[in-house]
Design brief:
The chain is an alpha/beta fold. The chain has 16 helices and eleven strands. Bound molecules: NADPH dihydro-nicotinamide-adenine-dinucleotide phosphate, 1-deoxy-D-xylulose-5-phosphate and manganese (II) ion. Manganese (II) ion (MN) binds next to helix 7.
Length: 380
């Protein structure tokens, strides 16, 4: 029996993770759950899974949660450090990090420092601070949940690190891939939130539409798999059936395929190195008929080149890109900026930032804070 804590349990990945754990209840016990403000939903999850600790980052709502659960043996943690606290207090063997954004970094660091397995969906932690997080982790201590990285990790089980020629990360292209470039300035948040193949939280869905998600993912891949920029390719594959591929030095290309369903990579991260049965929709290739591929359009979707810049140059670019993007996505959702301004404002902030080649954690956090202030100047 393994103890699992799920950070961000009320979100899209968090709910899928609980679905997986519910089906594997003889192998996993939930000892920690967390959310930001959905306290009633978190309370229902706590009542079902009976963890020893839960965390709500919103201090004011935490009072209501405590009152609701009074009489139960569940400790409620709240406040700024609650993610880190739940990692350490919940006695988890595995921490699923399914929070969105930079807030996940401290929990990622705490998890690996405590020697626990980190099942990582929160790609932003590696985008910001892969140079800090990765050296702290042992081999296979960080297990990817992101579908593309899980696919690459699975494909890599058939070869060795020094046999990798390149990886090919697939991208759905998002809802606007075939839109004429001159129409993108006018697309709305409602349109952007209609992802063609995946049902996900709002932030990542907008990132998919700008292709910033692929930018974040190539940075994530660099850190997870120790790759150079010229070993990371992106191909647009609108059906999201091939989740990514690895080309080895003998020319063999190993792909991981399946219907788009995050329960598959979540479960693999929890059960690795074993596999467990999962009642997922079977892959019916004759029904799908066509798997198609296109070169990404870097002019129409400039976010991708920012990702390659961060992979090549490293340093504080990842943290700056991530922070500026988080603010820009929120501003787009609030209809304060246009869709096309997300990438252009992020680029502007990166170009103005004070680059540090090998930043320590404090310098990374300072770059994050600076970028959040700087991009606000573009919003007024
Ligand atoms: N969704 C997907 O299929 C995929 C997601 N990912 C990555 O996984 C992560 C989660 O994505 P997703 O599940 O879609 O996101 P959601 O928005 O659906 O869920 C986010 C979760 O994080 C919590 N949260 C939000 N803000 C804070 C905060 N400031 N402090 C503490 N907790 C917070 C939310 O709590 P509350 O509900 O109370 O707001 C919620 O539980 C992201 O990094 C994303 O890029 C990667 C691959 C696929
Ligand atoms: C499910 C998952 O891993 C997402 O990151 C997904 O890949 C987003 O789709 P895009 O390929 O459109 O970015
Ligand atoms: Mn992904």
């Amino acid at each position: 029996m393994k103890n699992v804590a799920i950070l961000g349990s009320t979100g899209s990945i968090g709910k899928n993770a609980l679905h997986v754990v519910r089906n594997l209840k003889d192998s996993f016990r939930v000892t920690g759950l967390s959310s930001h403000s959905q306290w009633e939903f978190l309370a229902r999850q706590a009542e079902e899974f009976n963890p020893s600790h839960i965390a709500l980052s919103d201090l004011q709502l935490a009072g209501k949660l405590k009152q609701h659960l009074s009489g139960k043996q569940i400790e409620v943690i709240s406040g700024n450090n609650c993610l880190k606290e739940i990692v350490l207090k919940s006695e988890a063997d595995i921490v699923v990090s399914a929070v969105v954004g930079a807030i996940g970094l401290s929990a990622a660091i705490a998890t690996v420092q405590a020697g626990k397995i980190l099942a990582l969906a929160n790609k932003e932690a590696l985008v910001m601070a892969g140079n800090i997080v990765i050296p702290l982790a042992k081999k296979n201590q960080i297990l990817p949940v992101d579908s593309e990285h899980s696919a690459i990790f699975q494909a890599l089980q058939s070869g060795r690190q020094n046999e990798i020629r390149r990886i090919i990360i697939t991208a759905s292209g998002g809802p606007f891939y075939d839109f004429p470039a001159d129409t993108l300035a006018d697309v709305t948040p409602a349109q952007a939130l209609k992802h063609p193949t995946w049902r996900m939280g709002q932030k990542i869905t907008i990132d998919s539409a700008t292709l910033m998600n692929k930018a974040l993912e190539i940075i994530e891949a660099k850190w997870l798999f120790n790759l150079e920029a010229d070993q990371i390719d992106v191909v647009v594959h609108p059906q999201s059936i091939i989740h990514s591929m690895v080309e080895f030095c003998d020319g063999s290309v190993i792909a991981q395929m399946g219907m788009p369903d995050m329960k598959v990579p979540i479960q693999y991260a929890l059960t690795f190195p074993e596999r467990a049965c999962l009642n997922a929709e079977p892959l019916d290739l004759p029904r799908i008929e066509n798997l198609t591929f296109k070169k990404p359009d870097r002019e129409k979707f400039p976010a991708l080149k920012l990702g390659y810049l961060a992979v090549r140059e490293g340093g504080t670019i990842g943290a700056t890109l991530n922070a500026a993007n988080e603010v820009a996505v929120q501003a787009f959702l609030e209809k304060k900026i246009r869709f096309t301004e997300i990438a252009s404002f992020v680029e502007k902030v990166i170009n103005h930032h004070h680059f540090i080649k090998d930043p320590c954690l404090e310098e990374i956090l300072a770059a994050d804070a600076w970028a959040r202030q700087e991009i606000k100047k573009c919003l007024t």
